[in-house]
Amino acid sequence: MQELPFSKVISFDKAVGSSAQYSVKIEQEHFPRLSESCCSILEPIEANFRFFKDLQGLSTIEGSLKAKVTFVCQRCSKEFVKELNSTFSSTCDEQKAKSLKIDQKLDIVELNDDGTFNLLDFLEDCLLLEIPFITSHDEDDPECIENENGWSFGKIVKSSEDNPFAKLQSLKENLKK
Ligand SMILES: [Zn+2]
């Protein structure tokens, strides 16, 4: 496995203190949750981010991520490529933000009990948030043609199994018997 150019867990304060800044490509294998959430990650994830104190003195991480992944289209069941783009700006200074009454406007990240910050998990979370609720081709994509019988196989069948309402329905039906 490629070594990360940064530690998975870091000291936010130290990173701010040294104005740490990264412009890196991170191998797919470092993002297991993202891998599970899509069909494949096509190339290393581009990450650009830096640590600094903002104008109000809040310790901040700011940056962007780009990942090229594939999903199965829920309309036509074909795989399609999607670029996930995330931009973020978050602070760990919750108390200070609250005292400045700007905590509602800011994205606040939690630190661990020992004051460390799960940097790699944070980056992966940012990308997971960019995954659309329904994964499908764009509306007007000519690639996207529904199956002849108007019903697609594969993922969509699986997702209805996982659907809590479907489960509830089958539970109700079983009770009637
Ligand atoms: Zn499609």
Task: Give the tags.
177 residues, alpha+beta, 6 helices, binds zinc ion
Taking the sheet with the most strands, its summary is: 6 strands, mixed
Look at the helices and sheets and give the structural class: alpha+beta
Give the C-alpha Rg: 21 Å
Number of helices: 6
Helix content: 25-40%
How many domains? The number is 1
InterPro entries: YceD (IPR003772), YceD_bac (IPR039255)
Pfam families: YceD
Organism: Succinivibrio faecicola
Function: Plays a role in synthesis, processing and/or stability of 23S rRNA.
Commentary on this structure:
This protein has helices at 12-17, 32-37, 94-99, 119-128, 155-162, 164-176; strands at residues 9-11, 21-26, 40-41, 45-53, 59-72, 79-91, 107-108, 116-118. The chain has one domain (9-146). It contains six helices and eight strands. It is of the alpha+beta class and 177 residues long. The strands form two sheets. Strands 2, 3, 4, 5, 6 and 7 form a six-stranded mixed β-sheet that branches. It has a two-stranded antiparallel ribbon with strand order 1-8. The site of zinc ion (ZN) has 7 residues, from loops.
